[in-house]
Description:
Layout: H1 9-18, H2 35-50, H3 54-83, E1 84-87, E2 90-94, H4 95-99, H5 103-118, H6 126-135, E3 143-145, E4 151-154, E5 158-162, E6 184-186, E7 194-196
Helix pairs in contact: 3-5, 5-6
Amino acid sequence: MRPLLTVRRAETGEYCTSFQLQPRQDTSNLSLEPLRNRVRLELLPLLQNYNSGLWKHCSAPRQIAGDDIAHLEKEAGQIWPKVADKQGDVIVLDKKALLKLPVSVQRYLLRQAVETAAGNLKDIEARHIEEMMQAMDKPASKQISLPYGLVFAVDYERYLLAKDISSLNPFPALEQEYPIIVPGTSEIPGCASMPISSHPLN
């Protein structure tokens, strides 16, 4: 929640002055090292010299974009239970159902999947979501590494998202080597029996 996002710094300063408040100053905001600070401290004042109504002109598109985002979030929230399922620590997305949706809704559902798996979106950037979007059309076994140790994997009929890569595999990890009997039936704990009638190369 950012209740002061639409309020200008000058307005909050005037408010504090009128009520004799002493706001805390974050000295890191004065550093020109981060790009966002250079934009706020150098670029925006320069642009306002060319157009004094810059703030007003920027506010209108921001409001429109905010309305669009709110609609997409609501739409994605309603669709989520139909295409997503949480199985333990794994987020399972229905591949066929997800691909039928508009691209904008797909992005929001992927963001929601990451947020559900990671607990937040702090280090998740647009490029991470786009990497997932591009992977959706890739063959099964394609995997994308994401922040927080998350892995997005493409299955035959599903997309899987989990922190532990081993949890994406439906079969248990093999702790030792097991012989394959040819011909015959090979038993591997936790896996289905594999009857082999002849040598696979014959």
